[in-house]
Amino acid sequence: MGKVLVLALVGILAALLGERLMEFRCKLNGSRELEPVELPNCHLIKGIERGAEDIDILPDGLAFISSGLKYPGLKTFAPDKPGEIFLMDLNDENPRAVELRISRGFDLASFNPHGISTYIDKDDSVYLFVVNHPEFKSTVEVFKFVEDENSLVHLKTIRHELLSSVNDIVALGPDHFYATNDHYFSDSILMYLELFLGLTWSNVVYYSPTEVKEVASGFYSVNGINISLDKKYVYIADLMAHHIHVMEKHANWSLTQLKVLELDTLVDNLFVDPYTGDIWGGCHPNGMKLLFYDPENLPGSEVIRIQNILSEKPTVTQVYAENGSVLQGSSVAAVYSGKLLIGTVFHRALYCEL
Ligand SMILES: *[C@@H]1O[C@H](CO)[C@@H](O)[C@H](O)[C@H]1NC(C)=O
Ligand SMILES: *[C@@H]1O[C@H](CO)[C@@H](O)[C@H](O)[C@H]1NC(C)=O
Ligand SMILES: *[C@@H]1O[C@H](CO)[C@@H](O)[C@H](O)[C@H]1NC(C)=O
Ligand SMILES: *[C@@H]1O[C@H](CO)[C@@H](O)[C@H](O)[C@H]1NC(C)=O
User: Fold this and answer.
1) Which CATH number goes with the domain that contains 323?
2) Helix (H, G, I), strand (E, B), or coil: what is residue 142?
3) Domain count across the chain
4) Looking at the domain assignment, is residue 6 inside a domain?
5) Is 333 a domain residue?
6) What is the pLDDT of residues 280-331, one digit of tens each?
7) What is the residue with the minimal CA distance to atom 13 of ligand 1?
8) What is the pTM of this model?
9) By residue range, what is the domain housing residue 210?
10) Is 284 a catalytic residue?
């Protein structure tokens, strides 16, 4: 009797695990093969060799690029080198990526930059908010950009228990922002267990010096976040659920869901075209290849553009798709005046003329 019971239990567990594995593989779009979509005028950006996870472009065409992310479980080509922030002037005929100097006093050795966001204050000061993971913890660093000196002056480090596993941020003012926590757990083993079990414990937090609170929850794995041009709506990418949520922003900063756009790919960061309001997404066509890095079976890249997201039938266009022979693991796509920059989690970055 005892043996039968044990056998039955083992059988049930195995079946559950099998089903979970299938489901997980499906969520990662593990069997997807990519049909290429080419762009004619692209080249890899010199000097960026170990990621351009997030990109933010100022209205005058200066692009900030965060590079050198080390994220538990994901590939890195330079595990011992600290991260850096590059600047690119997209008005130049042949823009170059230049590393920004960071002011003394900031711990550069543990710099591990992830999502970034800029904010221009009333006095034209430019602030750069950077999600940082020193020793795999989460902080938000606030810098002031000094253009004449190609440098960033570190102003402060923000830590908070609600900012536990931060992926991306969108600045709302000189010291307030929304942040996405891509997991509930920050410990890497628990984090992957959470992902594997499909728990929906990922959330969005509002931060200001006087108030910090959860403003939206119940997501599988929220990544990119951005705001509409009229500042009424917040767009949130749920990577593992293949969703973009359109959230209505309220006066008390809380967010309520207006609609969900279902996609066929794992959307990472979101960029809002400052002229048209279109949303550009850097996507992972096959999450299995990203998570289980294999040089013989590389993760590819995919860029989508979404027009009229508020309408009944938004138009989703696949702008670029590539199997990894050029660009591995795209995480962001940003546009400025007919130019497109595509960044990746740990690989290179592409410059295209559209
Ligand atoms: C990707 O995943 C979605 C489920 O969200 C599924 O509907 C779709 O068929 C998958 N695509 C491919 C090409 O496997
Ligand atoms: C949001 O979109 C703006 C352009 O409207 C872009 O400059 C910025 O990089 C995006 N922000 C984030 C947090 O990705
Ligand atoms: C915030 O505002 C919304 C919309 O006005 C309201 O429904 C919600 O209850 C408010 N939340 C809090 C915590 O006050
Ligand atoms: C990737 O795409 C390129 C160009 O389309 C092609 O030459 C190459 O064989 C592909 N590689 C794999 C592994 O499919």
Assistant:
1) 2.120.10.30
2) strand
3) 1
4) no
5) yes
6) 999 999 999 999 999 999 999 999 999 999 999 999 999 999 999 999 999 9
7) 32
8) 0.94
9) 32-353
10) no
